[in-house]
Fold:
Amino acid sequence: MVCPRCIMAVETVLKKLNVHFESVKLGEIQLISPLNNEEKNNLQTALEALGFEVLSDKKTRLIEGIKRVIIDLVHHQEQPEKIGHLNKQLPMVLKQSYSSLSKLFSEVEGITIEKYLILQKIEKAKELIAYDELSLSEIAFRLNYSSSQHFSRQFKSITGIAPSAFKDHKGKRRPLHDI
Structure:
């Protein structure tokens, strides 16, 4: 789950199946009581029909936790200085050492945590460019880049076009869960 609409969709499924829950957050459901096997299967089937995946093993949950923290940092907060510094933020949230999280993420996803952060920042930049309300310098600042030149170089290296050309070319954005 990567957006408020995803949370609402999951809540709707839970209510339809009469599953009692405390809360639904990005990538996580807090149930009031455990489900029996039939309830688990029904829930999994209903969620998969909507394109969601039920995560049960520890490694997969950790990977999704890493992604959730990064998505929250980049897409759902307004404090640029909080974007980055993953070596401090991830261990604090996930209660694991950064080196073990980094190694696991690279093994499973085939890219580094830092590369995933960059991909998320570029997707957020595409969104902000498409809105056409901020200058490139303001976008660079919002995404905690050291300069607009650094932002522009990184944007071009990922997308193949400069940020200024992105809007003119009607550049395509990717869903967050596909990154």
